[in-house]
Amino acid sequence: MLFPKKVKHRKWQTARLSEAKLLRPESRGITVAFGSFGLKAETPSRVAANQIEAARRAMTRCAGKTAKIWIRIFPDRPVTQKAAEVPMGKGKGDPDRYVFEVRPGRILFEIDGVTEVVAREALRKAGCKLPLKTRVVAR
Asked: Which of 15, 43, 126, 138 could pair with 59 as two cysteines, CB 3.0-4.6 Å apart?
């Protein structure tokens, strides 16, 4: 799974995201830059590291050995959670997982080296593993 090797701050403050900021389209990472086909986010969401890994595995299995895959997102935001059956208070919980906050328009994965039919099917399967609506786009 993906996670940062070293972080400056172990716990981040909770982001107070308004609905308008979440729905604002992404301005960076919105074009297919490396491969021929890409998986584009349609809705905002937080994508965890294990979800990215599940999508990558689904894509790799479907695409085969000739495909080259790029992961365009990296989970660097820590999400904390208190342990089970711990009383309230006594500070913030420990880091539980790392996530990436996706806004609409961001390219999540790219693929090249396979036919269009295989690429679209692989990206569709990867999109099913993610907690947001996605669309397959071509260069």
From this structure: 126
122 domain-assigned: yes
Residues 6+ apart with CB under 8 A from 11: 78, 80, 92, 95
Asked, for residue 70, whether it belongs to a domain, the answer is: yes
Predicted TM-score (pTM) of the model is 0.93
Q: Where in the sequence is the domain holding 114, given as residue range(s)?
A: 36-77+94-138
Q: How do residues 20-41 score in pLDDT, each as one tens digit?
A: 777 889 999 999 999 999 999 9
User: Which CATH number is 117's domain given?
Assistant: 3.90.1170.10
Return the ∠ at Cα 121 (arms to 117 and 126), rounded to 5°: 150
**pLDDT tens track for 49-84:** 999 999 999 999 999 999 999 999 999 999 999 999
Beta bridge partners of 57: none
Take residue 30 and report the two structure tokens written for it. Answer: 């919105």
Closest listed residue to residue 76, CA positions, set 4, 133, 1, 25: 4
Residue 22, domain member (yes or no): no
Indicate the DSSP class of residue 85.
T
